[in-house]
Structures are given as C-alpha cells and as structure tokens.
Amino acid sequence: MIEGLGSESRKVAIQAVLRIEESQSYANIILPQIIESSELSDLDRNLVTEIVYGTTRMKKALDWAFERYLAEQPPPALRASLRVGVYQIIFMRIPDHAAVDATVSASSKRNKGVVNAVLRKIAKEGSLNWPNKATQLSYPHWILERLSEDLGEEESLRMLQKMNEAPDVSIRADGYHQDKASQWVVELINPQRADKILDLCAAPGGKSTGLAHKASEIIAADINSSRQKLVSENIKNLGLKNINQVISDGKHPPFVSHSFNKVLVDAPCSGLGVLHRRADARWRISKRDVQNLAEIQKELLASAVRLVEPEGELIYSICTVTKAETNEVVSETERRFPGLKPIKLEDSRWRPYGNGLQILPHDSQTDGMTIFKWKV
C-alpha cells in the first residue's frame, strides 16, 4: 500500500493532467517533460505516473463520478484536481483520507473547498451505481458497441477490462522490448535463412528486427521518415546488418514485381487491441477512422500482392480485432485477387479465426492481434 506521500506529487499530477487536457497533447510526451522538471523522488515519480496515466485513461468514469455533485461544468483546473482525487479514491490502494488531504492541499486556493467537499462525498459512497458499462470502464460508447457486435458482449467486456490494466513487459532474447503477440506473429511468418522479406509498414521496426535474426535480407519500408529513425535506432542497438531501410508509400511501393519471398503488411489500424499501451489512445480514435483505415489496408494489400514471387507468401497482421479491418478486408482482397491461396494457420496460443488467427488481450496477457497468410 502506498502511504505517506504528500501534496507535491499530487500538485505535479494535477499540472500534468491540466496541460494534457488543455493542449490536447499526448500524455506520454507531456508527462516525462513535467516529471523531469520536478524535484520529486523516484517513488513520487512512480506515483505521479500511475495517477496521470490512470486519470487520462479513466477520465470518463471520473467525470461521471464527480459531476453528480456539481451544479455546472467545472473549469479546467478544478476538473484536473477532481480527476486526480477521484482516481485515487476509486482506483488506487491509497487510504481515502490520504487521497483527499493530499489532493486538497495540492489544489489552488480557490478550488480547495469544492475539491474537499466532493472528494469526501465520493469517499463515503463506497461502491458506485454506474449508469452503463462504457462509463464504468471509461471508453467511448462506440468502442464498446463495435466490439460487442464483433466479439459478443461477454468477450468485449473482458477485453476492455483487461485493457484498463498495465500491459505485461515482454523482452525478446536479443533484449528488445516487444509484446508476446508480436513475437508470435514473427514465428508464424516462419522466416527461413534464404528468405528476402519486405516489411511494407515497418516502423518502429519490431517485426523487421525479429525477422532479421532468421532471414537473409529484410527490407524495412515505411512512409514516415521520422518513424524510420526509430527503425534505424533499433537496428543499430541490436547490431543487425541485414536490414535495409526504404522510405516509401506502401500504396505505391518502388519495388520490382515478384521480388520477395515473403511480404508482411503489418498495416496501420484502429489499434483497438492495444489501447492499454497508450492512456489517451481510446480518446483519439473515432468510429469513422475504423472504416477509413480498412480502406487503406485494402490498398496496401493490393500493392503488396504483386511484390510476392510465385509460390511466395503474403502476410497480413494488425493489432486490432474489428471485423471491418479483419474479415472484411480479407474477403475483399481475396475477391480482387482470386489467385491468392489462404494458408490455414494453427497455433494453440491463438484463437482460430477463419483461415487466420486472433488473440485477445485477456487470452494470454498480450496485445490483441489478428493475422492471415496466403500463398501467391
């Protein structure tokens, strides 16, 4: 149990939550800047990190909890203080009195009275009578609705609950931090020593570097030059010599037709299988984005087909589980390219999903991911 931590850590947390909300910046960019400029101990820095990321993730639930006691919408600074305080009361193992006292002390003079009154009322409530699951789990309604339609209500709720927890830390044998599901995707690609493999959407390079340990040559392509710098750093850190980088648009790749044994399309997607990785991700993706991304995925697969040599393999993987980005993309691709021969994938760690495989975050404490494979 975390005890004995004072108001300075809450003051930094409130400052971070306020700046993230007002600037609409990414929490993982703003928070390190604020922490580095503080004089907090390592213990307090860990506490602030948990509070800020948790508050960002659970803000829908938090807002509902305290807005019941307010006559009008609170100004930003008051909202930030209330979010920080309520998060500690509902979701952390901090005694209520400590959470209330420290948060009130950290709040501005004009907000102390309201913060004190509201936090004490919520602390007295005990369990809350949430209006609906989307509010309780703190997700946009459309995400819960979409996943319930695609996975069923029970599976979707288990998945969303799991993604409110911190992800497991997984480290490859070479020291690279990579989720187990992504490592298993590399295994399913089954790179061979003679293979020349194109990773069409490579950044930040996790799968490219994993493939490079077994294949003869990897082409790591990506349209984003700044993200290609991450690939370069990872290649350098791992001491790999068989990866060549290309900055290119995956929809119009500059490669000769039929020049790769395998082509991986690890496509940009809604990321609904990895919402636990970034606290603010759920608030940045929209319902419309899912369909727009599905169209991009179809274009990427269409451009990738011509790059695979006869009897070579095309692999499609995405860190999401929506039908629009999985089954529907696959069906359209197979309709457009009837010569594609689906390869039935089998792996006991995954769920069978048509001819492909799917894994949900609560299955094995991994990211949610889907993979398909064809012989060309």
Structure in words:
50% of the residues lie in helices and 13% in strands. It is an alpha/beta fold. The protein has two domains: 123 residues, N-utilizing Substance Protein B Homolog, Chain A, CATH 1.10.940.10; 196 residues, Vaccinia Virus protein VP39 (Rossmann fold, 3-Layer(aba) Sandwich), CATH 3.40.50.150. Strands 1, 2, 3, 4, 5, 6, 7, 8 and 9 form a nine-stranded mixed β-sheet that branches. β1, α12 and β2 form a beta-alpha-beta unit. α1 packs across α3, α2 packs antiparallel against α3 and α3 crosses α5. It is elongated and about 70 Å long. 42% of the residues are buried.
Write the layout of secondary structure elements.
Elements: H1 7-23, H2 27-36, H3 42-57, H4 59-67, H5 76-91, H6 96-106, H7 112-125, H8 133-137, H9 141-151, H10 153-162, H11 180-189, E1 196-199, H12 206-212, E2 217-222, H13 225-238, E3 243-247, E4 260-266, H14 281-284, H15 287-305, E5 308-318, H16 327-336, E6 341-342, E7 351-353, E8 356-359, H17 361-364, E9 369-375
Parallel strand pairs: 1-2, 1-4, 2-3, 4-5
Antiparallel strand pairs: 5-9, 6-9, 7-8, 8-9
Helix pairs in contact: 1-2, 1-3, 1-5, 1-6, 2-3, 3-5, 4-5, 5-6, 5-7, 6-7, 9-10, 11-12, 15-16
